[in-house]
Amino acid sequence: MTDTPTQLFIGGAWVDAADGATMPVDDPATGEVLCHVADAGPKDAALAEDAAVQAQEEWARTAPRVRSEILRRAYEIIIERTDELAHLMTAEMGKPLAEARGEVAYAAEFFRWFSEEAVRIDGGLATLPDGRNRMLLSRRPVGPCLLITPWNFPLAMGTRKIGPAVAAGCTMVLKPAPQTPLSSLALAAILKEAGLPDGVLNVVTTSRAGEVCEPLLRGGRIRKLSFTGSTGVGQLLLAQSAQAVVRTSMELGGNAPFVVFEDADLDKAVDGAMVAKMRNMGEACTAANRFFVHRSVAEEFARRLAERMDALVVGPGTRDGVDVGPLIDRTGRAKVEELVADAVQRGARVLVGGRTPEGPGCFYPPTVLADVDPTSRLMDTEIFGPVAAILTFDDEDEVIRRANDTPWGLVGYVFTEGLDRALRVSERLEVGMVGLNTGLVSNPAAPFGGVKQSGLGREGGRVGIDEFLEYQYLAVPVS
Fold first, then answer.
1. Are 273 and 293 in contact (CB under 8 A)?
2. pLDDT digits (tens, 9 = 90+) for 168-191
3. Which residues are within 8 A (CB) of 338 and not within 5 positions of it... i.e. 6 or more apart?
4. Residues in domain Aldehyde dehydrogenase (predicted)?
């Protein structure tokens, strides 16, 4: 931890908070304090905003190839330091090292992807229908951005936002989650090393998010907000952004249905369930929340899933052989405990897990619940933990209606061997993404995002850079 920055990163310099405040970073596996980092206040946020605004004009004029090469160098540095970054992430967030290494590769790929997109920003030239004018279209950066990232994928959510902003020519103020500031600070150091000019990226770590972010959004100089987090916080930020008409993209909560039809390959379905449910200990907006299994195969699916979940090893993420690390904090674990208790009280059967272990850390065992009552709280709450809740269904129309009966619409999973059914059901699901016979949909080359209260806009893929660009139309008379 001694080499990891712990100060704010403003204007290319590492600085303490103006009032000297610091905040602890805890290890969720032990509850012990790893270190203290600077705890920014409104004055620090204003300085970071100043730096981003001052750097914007020159950065916007920087050649696309220059921006591309900076991202490419940052990608290579991240790959070279995979183990170092993985250990840092596991320390502050808890995920097993194998998963942390996977996230490092995933995070780095956003920089490689957008390094290639940086040189493909195009416009257009056409004669308008009346023949009087030519239409010249150009695309330019939207301007200084506020990027707010969550704690569950602390490195990848940073690169997924920073990558397209750098490629588009936008400057940034990044506010990472207070639980996991170290990954973002390490990322800032890597970008500085890769040649990112001073002021283009500024990082303010803080426990005072409201005091820091609201003035930036209402002030009118920040022109873009990109937020990943809960729907409730997203709704608040949208309201704050309205006054200055700040452009927004929101990746919010999920309540993913996982649908297993009677003709599904159960081996594929259980494999998919393990990924969709247990990636990141279930602390993912894409996590399968509601398992709808056809009545004819529900018992066998539940038995197989329980066996697989029971075989997982729970412990500190740094320990060899561990599959499931701790949850992020005691508040997160208490939420999972309460949701499971409510489901059991309403008649759910616990096939495996369901009891909080004694001892230090924020651990909760992989849990499978069968015969879950549809009125249980975990049916309309993002669990964010290693709990699979199984319900049965009898026909296609019924399960689609139940799957769509939620204000969220991020991702859905469908397991069937019938092509017609696969396409028909996928098209009827009210979600932004569908995993068809797979439990993993996230990929830097694919557009990530949802519908309804799961968000606005898309991250990643060819469209990811669009969130950071504006069109300008120039009318040129035809002589």
1. no
2. 999 999 999 999 999 999 999 999
3. 377
4. 14-472
In sequence order, what E strands does 179-287 have? 201-203, 224-228, 247-251, 256-260
Separation CA 225–CA 52 (nearest Å): 14
Tokens 């080499």, located at residue: 3
pLDDT of residue 193: 98
Q: What is the DSSP letter of 357?
A: P
CB under 8 Å to 290, separation ≥6 — which residues?
A: 255, 256, 257, 258, 379, 389, 391, 402, 403
Query: Which residues are tagged catalytic?
Result: 251
User: pLDDT by residue (tens digit) across 83-126?
Assistant: 999 999 999 999 999 999 999 999 999 999 999 999 999 999 99
pLDDT at 372: 97
> Domain 8-252+454-475 adopts which CATH fold?
Aldehyde Dehydrogenase; Chain A, domain 1 (3.40.605)
- In degrees, rounded to 5, the angle at the alpha carbon of residue 218 between the alpha carbons of residues 213 and 224 is 75
What superfamily does domain 256-443 belong to in CATH? Aldehyde Dehydrogenase; Chain A, domain 2 (3.40.309.10)
